[in-house]
Amino acid sequence: MDEKRTVKTSKMLSRILRHDPGRIGVTLDEGGWVPVETLLTALTRCGNRLSRAELDHVVATNNKQRFAYSPDGLRIRANQGHTVEVDLGLAAAEPPAVLYHGTGHGSVAAIMHEGLRPMARQDVHLSADVETAVRVGARHGRPVVLAVDAAALAAAGHVFRVSANGVWLTDSVPPHHLTRHSG
């Protein structure tokens, strides 16, 4: 599978497994899982034939590790970023003292006024490192990295969870817990 097809397939799977499973006639269970064979059959029915080997390649090589197989390898789901209601079953975790959020320059003023909200997603997504936040922010224009005082948020009762691919999730970040990262 060439790189162009891998990226195109990854984007298609993200759209289906995070936002619109009904698009191809599949239903996610409460944990966001769908049987692999059901997914592959539905994709073929919709004109997007994908073999198990090709799916394995996309899951293994996705640089953002967006997808995961169940331990038995029979089901697949997106690791986070859902706009459809799912419960990923992630346990609460103690965050690092500081986490980061990448955004575009044009959104900074609103974020510093309103804080971070999940918008259409279920959770606010945070990174453990600046480099990842810069890459995320670059998808939205000129990147700006915001530092999140995760230790103070946790002390105030905010719950954090970490997805299988290392993305930190929380319900919101009030503006007084944000500073512009100057690194």
From TrEMBL:
Keywords: NAD, Transferase. Coiled coil: none annotated. Its EC number is 2.7.1.-. The keyword NAD applies. SUPFAM superfamilies: ADP-ribosylation. InterPro entries: Ptrans_KptA/Tpt1, RNA_2'-PTrans_C, RNA_2'-PTrans_KptA, RNA_2'-PTrans_N. Gene3D superfamilies: 3.20.170.30, RNA 2'-phosphotransferase, Tpt1/KptA family, N-terminal domain (1.10.10.970). The keyword Zinc-finger does not apply. Belongs to the KptA/TPT1 family. Removes the 2'-phosphate from RNA via an intermediate in which the phosphate is ADP-ribosylated by NAD followed by a presumed transesterification to release the RNA and generate ADP-ribose 1''-2''-cyclic phosphate (APPR>P). May function as an ADP-ribosylase. This is Probable RNA 2'-phosphotransferase.
